[in-house]
Amino acid sequence: MTRTPQPPQSSSSGKSRDFSHITRREQGLRRSLTASQMAMIAIGGAIGTGLFLGSGFAIGFAGPSVLVSYGIGALIALMLMGCLAEMTVAHPTSGSFGAYAEHYIGPWAGFLVRYAYWSCIVLAVGTEVSAIAVYMKYWFPQVPGWYWVAGFSAALVLVNAMSVNLFGAIEYGFSLIKITAIVLFIFIGAYVVFIAPNSVASAGHAPAGFANYTAHGGFFPKGLWGMWVAVIISIFSYLSIEMIAVAAGEAEHPERAVTRAFRSTVVRLVLFYLLTLALMLAIVPWTAAGQDESPFVKAMQAINIPGAAGVINFVVLIAALSSMNSQLYITTRMMFSLSRAGYAPERFGEVNRRGVPLAALLLSTLGIALATLVNFLYPESSFTFMMAISMFGAMLTWMMIFVTHFFFRRAWRREHHAPLAFRMWGFPWLTLLGAGLMAAIMITTLFTGVFRMTMIFGVPFVVAVLLVYFLWYRKHDSQPQGRTMTRA
Question: Which residue ranges traverse the bilayer (predicted)?
Fold first, then answer.
């Protein structure tokens, strides 16, 4: 193994040198992911528990107006992807938005964003495995959920430890199953709603149709506040679309792959989320959507196709495994980037002969351990608890991506004469709108009982992270800290 420290920074701002020093220190990962695999990685992360189980919570808050909630979330996600695409095409690296914040805002921002994102994804992994325990109850109601948490977790950690090629292939397969199932659900749902609405009534339910949007308290049964609170869950649902930016560090042709993957992912996510929710709410009244199982399973039970509910439950299980697989990958790379920046122990920046940061992967299983413990102690509330504490880091990261893009564009205009290969439209207004919406959503959690733990956990976390940086790492900014490590 060789270790080559980078030259010291000449200022604490981190802007005195061009971005290439960050790219050099994060070398060692294998560039073998294709554009289609990258798109599937993002879809794998974003179409998971947030849609198949979390949507049940969102419907409980908003009723049919959850469609507006997810529309607002989709708008924010679209703006975020535009900002990320612009920065990622300019600087493809595994450190991604953490590295961009370090370079364009300051080292403290890169430190905060990386640790906030790493912690939120570690905890989000715990959310996915908590959901797996819920899904397995459909077939095995007597088996303790933590059995499934431990077993499935061990299998996916092994997949991530093998190679990025194996990870990409399995994630592609997982995502293909999900997309196929969602497309089939859309066709079946459209048939039931538009052609055979009484097929649901014959199974003992009210006829399917858009009348269900207003039949139980109107379109806004919980008011505008309920609709706005559900936006919190929509953001959690869209979380992981930013994975493409991190995966760019292992893409074959990052500039071309990132652009294609961003565009296809945004279209697919918006289409899948809004269409499936619209049809599901037309088939099953919103009052029947609950937290004990996926609302999509309930929709298939209402349609009364033999075995369909079990098939959908299998699909949502695959969706959770896929999201967990993607999140293990991404949180490992973020810890790898932290180590290479000098903000975590050196061993987390080392890669094995297969190009995998194994030590960073093992550290990133902490969320699984926590989820296993919570599921063992509080099996009925483990999912909501893990979701609440994981969301702060995600929301902070999204807000900081918008802020970083604002600094990035101003710096690019000042320092570069060449035009950007990909440009975010509507700058600076859409960038500022995205940052403002994310700040408002974060503040909203304080006034929502089930999500109050988000800020109770998040604010002390941010204070602790910044104290660690300013008391310990800031004094090292003038010393060699970037690391380049390879293993023969």
Answer: 39-61, 67-85, 115-140, 146-167, 179-197, 225-248, 269-288, 308-330, 356-378, 384-408, 429-447, 453-473
Tokens of 228: 């706005």
**CA-to-CA distance for 466 and 485, rounded, in angstroms?**
27
The whole-number pLDDT of residue 94 equals 67
CA–CA separation, 88 and 97 (whole Å): 8
Other C-beta atoms within 10 Å of 135: how many? Answer: 25
DSSP code, position 281? H
Residue 245's pLDDT is: 74
Residue 299 corresponds to which tokens in the numbers above?
């929709």
Of the chain, the percentage scoring pLDDT greater than 70 comes to: 78
CA-wise closest residue to 15 among 95, 110, 102, 87:
102
CA distance 164 to 336: 14
The residues pairing with 2 across neighbouring beta strands, listed in sequence order, are: 486
**CA-based diameter of the chain, in Å?**
74
**In whole angstroms, how large is the CA radius of gyration of the chain?**
22
The span from the CA of 22 to the CA of 342, in Å, is 11
pLDDT tens digit sequence for 275-303:
888 988 888 888 876 555 667 777 777 77
pLDDT at site 136: 87
Looking at 122-131, 192-201, 246-255, which range is the least confident one? 246-255
Kindly state the tokens that stand for 120: 């939120």
Separation of alpha carbons 330 and 125, rounded Å: 11
What are the angstrom distances between the C-alpha of 237 and each of 232, 233, 310, 397, 445? 9, 6, 23, 15, 16
Q: What is the mean pLDDT of residues 431-456?
A: 91
> Half-sphere exposure of residue 66, counting CA atoms within 13 Å on the CB side?
33
Structural contact between residues 476 and 483, judged by C-beta atoms closer than 8 angstroms: no
Closest CA to 192 of 55, 284, 274, 288: 284
**Of 15-19, 65-69, 158-162, 411-415, minimum mean pLDDT range:** 15-19
Q: Is 443 exposed, middle or buried (0-12, 13-18, 19+ CB in 10 A)?
A: exposed
Give whole-number Cα distances, 86 to 90, 255, 328, 410, in Å.
6, 10, 25, 13
Specify the pairing of strand 2-3 against strand 485-486: antiparallel
Average pLDDT, stretch 474-487? Answer: 53
Q: Which amino acid is at 218?
A: G
* pTM as predicted: 0.82
Angle, CA 227 vertex, CA 221 and CA 230 arms, to 5°: 120
Please, are residues 213 and 50 in contact by the beta-carbon 8 Å criterion? no
Residue 425: count of CB within 10 angstroms of its CB: 9
Q: How many CB atoms lie within 10 A of CB 196?
A: 14
